[in-house]
Amino acid sequence: MKMKEVDEMYKEKYAKSYFMPPVITYDWVKKDSIEKAPIWCSVDLRDGNQALVEPMGLEEKLEFFKMLVEVGFKEIEVGFPAASDTEYLFLRELIERNMIPADVTIQVLTQAREHIIRKTFEAVQGAPHAVVHLYNSTSVAQREQVFKKSREEIKKLAVDGAKLLKELADETDGNFTFEYSPESFSQTEVDYALEVCNAVLDEWKPDKTRKAIINLPTTVQVAMPHVFAAQVEYMHKNLKYRDAVVLSVHPHNDRGCGISDAEFGILAGADRVEGTLFGNGERTGNVDIITLAMNMVCHGVNPGLNFSNIMKIREKYEQLSGMKVHERTPYTGDLVFTAFSGSHQDAISKGMAWREEGKSGAKWTVPYLPIDPAELGREYESDVIRINSQSGKGGIAFILKQNFGISLPDKMRDEVRVWMKEASDKGHKELTPSEIYSIFEEHYISARPVFDIPECHFKQINGITAEVTIEKDGEKQVIETTGNGRLDAVSNAVKKYFGISYELAVYEEHAISKGSSSKAAAYVGLNKDGVIYWGVGIDEDIIKSSIAALVAAGNKAVAAKI
Prior knowledge:
This protein is of the alpha/beta class. Helix content is 42%, strand content 19%. It is elongated and about 105 Å long. The relative contact order is 0.07.
């Protein structure tokens, strides 16, 4: 097909299925951030559960409920009790076993159908506080194709359902709040959705002491986020009893805009968000509450939910739901804080040092990290800087310092990176911290291909006199030399024994900051014919660590001569 033919095909087949409000305002655009967290309602146990290939069983749902409570959710939609025996029994277990904390409200879903509403109230009897969530579909497509009913008939379904809710709530033991959703709001004429919602509210007559919830779902996401925000703002400004209404949004993610819909919806007047952990739900999922919450944290807003141990939450979620969290899922994926790129690693490493030195004050300003991974219980050593063939010297230095207390001299870093890059390239893999240290140890600490110095004795006579035992090919020889210090004296013994010349170009030492605080690390760089040969020594005695570093570097210098 030619491009023009394709253009015409799409124009003929598809059209906008959303409706702009009759009066459009963009007051929400004037706000650049969310100032406070909304009311959160988890729908994991209903919307999330019904989207699973194998819905959770009773015990799994009970465990999932406990996890949601621990995270800090105060409103939890626990299911559709009229849908199945498991859903019904789960709700009864929660109530009869007194598993619902005093500050937690459960929520149940019911269609606007009499027998389902009655079954629902039977299920919630005795609940300390429950939201009964009534819905019916209002979109053009649903009215015409599914229900074959007029606008008035669809509105009557909602109103009759609202009346029955009120009637049964008065007859049923428990404390109830009412919620109404014009399902498929995203594809409903906005003025008509308003008309239906206001008709429902007229039945309930909420007040400030007994509020009702109006929930606006993007049941199927069909528009750009700013369109949804305009729809929400119109509802926010025109709903009756507005001071007595909690305006809620329930975004799905069909266009990949669930987060934006929720954030724009809050800016446009929504007080509440219904969503799931990790964005589980029908088709492409519901809005991911974790991402929403942590986005707020990035702007200094307390979300009121605790994700400080996110990997344990994720583990339990995956275990109970059978779903997997993608590596690139914001905040929670395995790789979202990970930097492989050398320039990124260097910037992060320098940013962390800047912060540790107190130069950024209390503010988090580390490059490439929009949020402190520690907020989620993520580890810098394993989650942030990871090493492969693309990694730079800064990242490798960071891993060695964070994990093993090794502070590489700046001049040494390029050469260390070459060895790591070679190992990653050959193995076609990422290098773990232990593999990085093993490679480092092989090349700089334990390298003894030519000789070793098992013993040294020093006397302070006109400087330092040293008796240095050099072992080569199984034979030992004592070399007596002098120097302006112990290390210089030992170095002179090596030069004398092998008949070579070099300059001690670099010497650095420091206490090991990881593990035993009594150990010291020494770094020696020998300049022979313009080439630097590096060695590292680690010992409880700084003299022994310095000599070990010299021996490692000296072996390379001698090997180069041979």
